[in-house]
Amino acid sequence: MNDNFNSSKIALVTGGASGLGLAIAKKFVDNNIKTIITGRNVQKLNDAAAALGSGCITMVSDMNDLAQLPHTVKTIVDQYGTIDILVNNAGINLKKNFAEVTDQEFQNIFQTNVLGVFALSREVVKVMIDKKRGSIINISSMASQYGIPKVIAYTASKSAIEGMTRAMAVELSPMGIRVNCIAPGFIRTKMSAAALDSDPERKNKVLSRTPMGTLGVPEDVANAAYFLASDESSFMTGTVIPVDGGNSIGF
Hints:
By secondary structure, the chain is α/β, with parallel strands linked by helices. It has one domain (3-186, 217-237): Rossmann fold (3-Layer(aba) Sandwich). The chain contains 9 helices and 7 strands, in the order αβαβαβαβαβαβαααβ. The chain has helices at residues 3-6, 19-30, 42-52, 69-80, 103-131, 152-172, 190-197, 200-208, 218-229; strands at 10-14, 34-39, 56-60, 85-88, 134-139, 177-184, 240-243. It has a 7-stranded parallel beta sheet with strand order 3-2-1-4-5-6-7, with helices on both faces. α6 links the parallel β5 (134-139) and β6.
């Protein structure tokens, strides 16, 4: 896709200041898509903007504050005219034995990972319907592809995201809006690398059931997101694409 075509595009990436979100934002900016990243941590947002350059705009926004999300979308549209691409990347996790997870903890995960995604998507969709075009990319997880212990709330939330992806795609595609989902496998970020390096048994299990025999890198997910955001995937909607080195089908 040529840069001139991309230069008119506006993307919104939630949780774009670190990890997968930052890699996705960098891929977009590097391909001349003006990219707004949101998050709660002002310092992280500023650091990301400094690294990504003038094609990146930061905005403080909390996915838990549902009442504020319409204002976030209105601010973006007032300033930049539209939102062509939405990447619902922001999410939280909780690692805890099933029997010890409280109702409130379960609810907190759903508030951010499901209700936040729904509420923001709904507001962005209103903008995309007017333009009769748009690409929404949800981020799921291996946790929704098979059972992983000690992440019941996270697993439930990501399973909901995959179901929402299909329902959104069927309803919105006739209006020119495509909705797809990426299910990352085990990706080497600072956080995941530290966790796996401190637990050799778990790391060996991860690598042994990943046919490609290695962890992914954030850029692998970013490349998939860029493909789904672009017209190269114009006949794709409602898909859940594992980016996992074969982990979800490994033995």
